[in-house]
Amino acid sequence: MVKAVVLGAAGGIGQPLSLLLKLNEVITELALYDIVNSPGVAADLSHINTPAKVTGYLPPNDGLKNALTGAHLIVIPAGVPRKPGMTRDDLFKINAGIVRDLATGIAQHAPNAYVLVISNPVNSTVPIVVEVLKKHGVFDPKKVFGVTTLDVVRASTFTSSISGSAPQGVRVPVVGGHSGVTIIPLLSQISPRHEFTHEQIEALTKRIQFGGDEVVKAKDGAGSATLSMAQAGARFSSSILNATVKGEAGIVEPSYVHLDADKEGGSQLRKTPSGVAKINSLGDINEYEKKLLEAAIPELRTNINKGVSFIADGS
Ligand code: NAD
Ligand code: LMR
């Protein structure tokens, strides 16, 4: 039995993400939780002829508890999205509390599950989940992930739009966090190898770092990326399931994960591509990428501290 749970399942990301998870035949039970409309979304998806039994939950009658109990994998796209002119950090005020409360439910009812955090600002919401799980004594650093897969997906698309190669075949490691300069594409490690001019590398890096803004601007007040995010979230979920349920080896997915300060030479930067089994090093990075890393560290540190303080003293 493999139970997957979506928290925020009736939203712009939640609905298409739930659809894609319903199509994943490894999942036998799909629990959809939201503060509105989750039973409707569940009823709709339940007519699709794939194995997952779909159930919808609202907060009353222990809805969160019933959704979470027995979960193997939990994906969290709950919370408000950006409008033009906002940063992801502007969402902290509303989303921090939402994520804290959902993480408390996870600590109580699904402490062994893999937790995939989509809600922004990811750089701070992941530390919030980590601190809540630590507080309850159930934190496992190999089970909590900030989903940065959309940056990886964009990097493949934008890179291939310059090189002309097939986007599905291009793999670009993108490490760091998930906002502006904290997003660090390692274009020197593209596979298969590409030769770009320095100008092309600078332009690509900027486009990958600020790709989210393109969608926010185009949606013009109606939210941010939802469909591409759903695909990215489903891809990351599928990688976790393939590794942990099917036992497939050699799967590598970049993600924003917790690293202890002492293992990072004093830095609290969560920056490495991570597998469930092992966190890889950054590999050989060039001088340009070292500068990107230096630019990312202060902002990441601020974002991380903001999440940690929110749980430590509620501020
Ligand atoms: P949305 O407003 O369309 O959907 C959010 C859903 O969360 C709504 O259905 C809402 O009812 C639900 N919700 C609110 N409070 C809740 C609670 N306490 N418990 C359960 N559900 C709750 O927003 P969206 O476009 O789906 O975006 C969701 C979040 O994902 C935003 O914070 C956005 O910034 C973020 N996002 C992250 C990435 C990424 O790469 N990590 C990409 C795109 C969007
Ligand atoms: C994205 O990268 O598309 C998301 O983080 C949403 C946003 O606010 O840009």
UniProtKB/TrEMBL annotation:
<dbReference type="GO" id="GO:0005737">
    <property type="term" value="C:cytoplasm"/>
</dbReference>
<feature type="binding site">
    <location>
        <position position="34"/>
    </location>
    <ligand>
        <name>NAD(+)</name>
    </ligand>
</feature>
<dbReference type="InterPro" id="IPR001557">
    <property type="entry name" value="L-lactate/malate_DH"/>
</dbReference>
<feature type="binding site">
    <location>
        <position position="229"/>
    </location>
    <ligand>
        <name>NAD(+)</name>
    </ligand>
</feature>
<dbReference type="GO" id="GO:0006099">
    <property type="term" value="P:tricarboxylic acid cycle"/>
</dbReference>
<comment type="subunit">
    <text>Homodimer.</text>
</comment>
<dbReference type="Pfam" id="PF02866">
    <property type="entry name" value="Ldh_1_C"/>
</dbReference>
<feature type="domain" description="Lactate/malate dehydrogenase N-terminal">
    <location>
        <begin position="3"/>
        <end position="146"/>
    </location>
</feature>
<feature type="binding site">
    <location>
        <begin position="118"/>
        <end position="120"/>
    </location>
    <ligand>
        <name>NAD(+)</name>
    </ligand>
</feature>
<dbReference type="InterPro" id="IPR010097">
    <property type="entry name" value="Malate_DH_type1"/>
</dbReference>
<dbReference type="Pfam" id="PF00056">
    <property type="entry name" value="Ldh_1_N"/>
</dbReference>
<keyword id="KW-0520">NAD</keyword>
<feature type="active site" description="Proton acceptor">
    <location>
        <position position="178"/>
    </location>
</feature>
<feature type="binding site">
    <location>
        <position position="82"/>
    </location>
    <ligand>
        <name>substrate</name>
    </ligand>
</feature>
<dbReference type="InterPro" id="IPR001236">
    <property type="entry name" value="Lactate/malate_DH_N"/>
</dbReference>
<feature type="binding site">
    <location>
        <position position="154"/>
    </location>
    <ligand>
        <name>substrate</name>
    </ligand>
</feature>
<comment type="similarity">
    <text>Belongs to the LDH/MDH superfamily. MDH type 1 family.</text>
</comment>
<dbReference type="GO" id="GO:0030060">
    <property type="term" value="F:L-malate dehydrogenase (NAD+) activity"/>
</dbReference>
<dbReference type="InterPro" id="IPR022383">
    <property type="entry name" value="Lactate/malate_DH_C"/>
</dbReference>
<feature type="binding site">
    <location>
        <position position="120"/>
    </location>
    <ligand>
        <name>substrate</name>
    </ligand>
</feature>
<feature type="binding site">
    <location>
        <position position="95"/>
    </location>
    <ligand>
        <name>NAD(+)</name>
    </ligand>
</feature>
<protein>
    <recommendedName>
        <fullName>malate dehydrogenase</fullName>
        <ecNumber>1.1.1.37</ecNumber>
    </recommendedName>
</protein>
<feature type="binding site">
    <location>
        <begin position="8"/>
        <end position="14"/>
    </location>
    <ligand>
        <name>NAD(+)</name>
    </ligand>
</feature>
<feature type="domain" description="Lactate/malate dehydrogenase C-terminal">
    <location>
        <begin position="148"/>
        <end position="310"/>
    </location>
</feature>
<keyword id="KW-0560">Oxidoreductase</keyword>
<keyword id="KW-0816">Tricarboxylic acid cycle</keyword>
<dbReference type="GO" id="GO:0019752">
    <property type="term" value="P:carboxylic acid metabolic process"/>
</dbReference>
<dbReference type="InterPro" id="IPR036291">
    <property type="entry name" value="NAD(P)-bd_dom_sf"/>
</dbReference>
<feature type="binding site">
    <location>
        <position position="88"/>
    </location>
    <ligand>
        <name>substrate</name>
    </ligand>
</feature>
<dbReference type="InterPro" id="IPR015955">
    <property type="entry name" value="Lactate_DH/Glyco_Ohase_4_C"/>
</dbReference>
